[in-house]
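Re: that chain you flagged

S.,

Sorry for the slow reply, it's been a week of failed gels. I finally had a moment to sit down with the sequence you sent. For the record, here it is as I used it:
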Amino acid sequence: MKIPNVEAFLSEITSSLRKHFTEYKIEFLLRTPKSLKCNIYFVASLFIAVRYNARNERIDFALIQNNQRIFGYDNLKEWHCHPYENPSAHIPCDKPSIDKIISDIRVICTAIKGSGGHHG
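Prediction finished late last night. Pasting the structure tokens below so you have them in one place:
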């Protein structure tokens, strides 16, 4: 499988965001042809930290609330999920599509809003 370049990766993220969220703001921390670091904010205390490196194929999506990872997917060593119930756990999984990652994050964001933003 060909690894997408940063622009292709980013366009996949933005089309998925548009599908699942009405409001978000992308802040770019680093954007080169081979790597991307950005934060996708829903509110100041809740955002997705996206890290992507086309050179070594590292992909990391972390949902951050109040400076703590509360959910995520990444492929350090192998693809795994950090579940919302226990974000420090590593649950091995097949490579998720970007749309699945964004969709899973939407479910959690909806749950957070419904619970008034308290975790656990």
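What I noticed first: Residues 6-114 form one domain.

Talk soon,
D.
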